[in-house]
Prior knowledge:
Strand content: 5-15%
Bound molecules: zinc ion
CATH superfamily: VSR Endonuclease
CATH architecture: 3-Layer(aba) Sandwich
Number of domains: 1
Shape: globular
CATH topology: Endonuclease, Chain A
Helix content: 25-40%
Low-confidence stretches: 8-12, 150-154
Amino acid sequence: MSRPPARPGGATDVYGAEKRSAVMRQVKGRDTTPELKVRRLLTALGARYRLHRADLPGRPDIVLAGRRLAIFVHGCFWHGHDCARGARVPKANRDYWQAKIARNRARDAASQAALATAGWRVETVWECELKDAEALKTRAAAWLSIAPRLAGRPRPKAGEKPG
Ligand SMILES: [Zn+2]
């Protein structure tokens, strides 16, 4: 059995409290910078969303429930993206990393299939795609322009009569 390599910067005492909490967030995979970028974009477009809904398969990073839209923001390395960064598996402990990434990929596929079966639209934003801000903006606008499939009738605006 190969063992997981030590995390870089394992001596946490060198960090101040603020830096340490930032590091811990990275470790937990929440509120990572790529995810924040996507969230800021959606906010700028006027979207309302919830984060990390544990009641949905795969706990999608960003959920627009009214639109039945679930968004995953994936690190290319951890989720085995087919890109230069995703292909860069460390030489040390190669078997360990490859097995771990394969498990992540299998879990991602199962989560996405389960969401689709439940009527959700699933979008994956890869870390490497964040470099092209304009393309991402166009894509996000397209998500929001698509009518929800199973969310029922649109709610009337305040002051309007339904139907
Ligand atoms: Zn990538």
